[in-house]
Amino acid sequence: MTTFLSGLLFFIFIVDVILIIPVVLMQSGSGAQAGLFGSDFASSAFGAKTSEVLVNFTKWLVAIFFLAALGLAYLHLPRTTRVQPEVKTSETTPQEGVPASPSQPAETLPVSPQK
Question: How far apart (Å, rounded) are the C-alpha atoms in residues 54 and 61?
Answer without folding.
Answer: 10
